[in-house]
Amino acid sequence: MFDLVINNGLIVDGNLNPAYKGNIGITGNIIMEISQENLAGRVVYDATGLIVSPGFIDMHSHGDFLPLLEEDYKLSRIKQGVTTEIVGQCGIGPIPYNEKTMEEYKLYTQPILGDLKSEWKFTDLNSLTNMTKSKMSHNMGYLIGLSALRSYISGLEFRSLTPKELVGLFEIYEKQLQQGALGLSMGLSYLPGVFASHEELIGLAKLTKEYDGIMMAHIRSHGVDMLKSIEEFINLGRETSAKIHISHCRSYKNKDFGIEASAILNYINKARKEGVKITLDQHPYTTGSTFLNQLLPPEDRELNKYEDEKYYSLVEQKIADKKLIIEGWDNMSLMVGFENIYLPTYGYTIEELAIKNGVSNFRELIDILKKENGKIAMVVKEMFDIDEISTLLKDEETFIGSDGLPSGRPHPRLYGAFPKVISDYVRNREDISLEQAIYKMTGGHIIGFNNRGIIGLGKIADIVIFDYNSISHEESYSGLNKDPIGIERVIIAGKIAFMNGEVLGNYGQFLRRKN
Questions:
Q1: pTM, two decimal places
Q2: Among 121, 163, 420, 468, which is most exposed with the fewest C-beta within 10 angstroms?
């Protein structure tokens, strides 16, 4: 007799096979039988009329601290069917941590990682995961961020590293790999990763390859220079043979600042034909979210400098210049306008606040950054085109990442990215099939989790059961996000972790890359 049985469900196995009706028998944490005959077990769930799929794997998330944050953030993953998330993204994870050099970095990352409201009492991957043990509602795997590594050595300093510092950088990264990190993440438009040299990136890529890890990148530009930025990243893969993955791989709706999705895919497919292995990820929203200080060029983010009115005026003119191109920076205030830069913390756009306060948009921006000490995130409306998202989703090796930010009043992608893929792009728009969507939402194989993300014999029983006809999530930017609907059961390692709208236990684990 099995420990848990799921009978009469429509199984979508995560392997692009056609959906089929079947019954699943689970013993311990392993799928032991898949049968056309009803099975018996200690616990039996009748999934008639429901979809049974592998648990969703969030390929790109900023939930590094989720097990330690307040419940609303912490449970945002499992309530939408996510059983595993990959954190440490965009180069801005919290580890390794050096309190002597990283206090400024700690403040800088708070709008992305969330506020622990306590000291960072960890130094490396082992010590952080020891803190989260038994507090995890879902599984987590960690990448090591380029910006964290650089800050460990030299803080947020705008400079190249010395040969001695490079040796230290490589040593501390290798230690994290030996502790089970999945690979490297790079934020090549974020501080201080934007200052990294080619030598630095090549050395880190070689180490990643040596440990059979993966390199994921927020590339240097998603704007008109995007193909150049993709080429920079592809060349790292070419030179080192490391596995590469482009995070939130899309350009902008405003074609004065972006390029067509078809051009991106043509370029990537050309490299694939040449033997370069490249995977991508997407979130399903036309809006974006990031640090508010991304509206300023990287070299102009020291807020104390704006006390000098001459400097203030020069930067104001700089960001209003349509012809100005700065490598590693996309001018979002021109791209969408201050009327589309929304601050959930305030409930208004920058333009609305500027009118209310009788000042210029730029003055309002600087005043808010000073008031919040830079620790504030924004929502960027009218940023992406839904048809272009669809084009990119149709690429076979594009997977789903929420890019969720557990800070302040979060973008709804933290709570509903995975239900939205099914409700919008499968059920309503019919851009991709349900089988394709589940494959894209369970892509554990690209980071070496070959025993997860598939319903098959001998695989770990991470499973989500949902109602295809009702699954959805309300896209609200008020910060008052509701739970998704349509998720009936979530099973982690053979244990029922979520049912009837309630989380039943912390069954998640830290997933290490195997040496």
A1: 0.93
A2: 163
298, 189 contact by CB (below 8 A) = yes
Share of the chain above pLDDT 70, in %: 99
Averaged pLDDT score across all residues of the chain: 94
| Nearest in space to 89 (alpha carbons), one of 225, 228, 235, 248 | 248
Q: Please list the residue range(s) of the chain that carry CATH number 2.30.40.10.
A: 1-55+453-468+485-501
Q: Is 47 left (phi over 0), alpha (psi -120 to 50) or beta?
A: alpha
CA angle 222, 203, 96 (to 5 degrees): 80
SS (H, E, C) 44-68: EEECCCCEEEECEEECCCCCCCHHH
Q: Are 432 and 94 in contact (CB under 8 A)?
A: no
Give the CA distances from residue 353 to residues 272, 337, 367, 467, in Å, rounded to whole numbers and listed in that order: 47, 14, 11, 42
Classify the phi-psi angles of 456: left when phi > 0, otherwise alpha if psi is within -120 to 50, otherwise beta.
beta
| The CATH number of domain 56-286+384-448, selected from 3.30.420.40, 3.40.120.10, 3.30.70.1050, 3.20.20.140 | 3.20.20.140
CB distance 368 to 353 below 8 Å: yes
Residues of the chain with CATH 3.20.20.140: 56-286+384-448
pLDDT in tens, 244-300: 999 999 999 999 999 999 999 999 999 999 999 899 999 999 999 888 999 999 889
* Alpha carbon distances (Å) from 477 to 104, 238, 241: 29, 41, 41
Q: How many CB atoms lie within 10 A of CB 515?
A: 8
- Is the model more confident about 51 or about 444? 51
> What CATH fold (topology level) applies to the domain 1-55+453-468+485-501?
Urease, subunit C; domain 1 (2.30.40)
- At 457, the amino acid letter reads L
Q: pLDDT tens for residues 150-166?
A: 999 999 998 899 999 99
42 φψ region: left (φ > 0), alpha (ψ -120 to 50), beta (else) = alpha
Q: What whole-number distance in Å separates Cα of residue 205 and Cα of residue 201?
A: 6
- In tens, the pLDDT along 108-125 reads 999 899 988 888 999 999
Q: What is the pLDDT of residues 307-351, one digit of tens each?
A: 999 999 999 999 999 888 887 788 999 999 999 999 988 999 999
pLDDT given at position 471: 98
Give the integer Cα–Cα distance in Å for 342 and 367.
15
CB 23 within 8 A of CB 11: no
- Distance separating alpha carbons of residues 131 and 118, to the nearest angstrom: 13
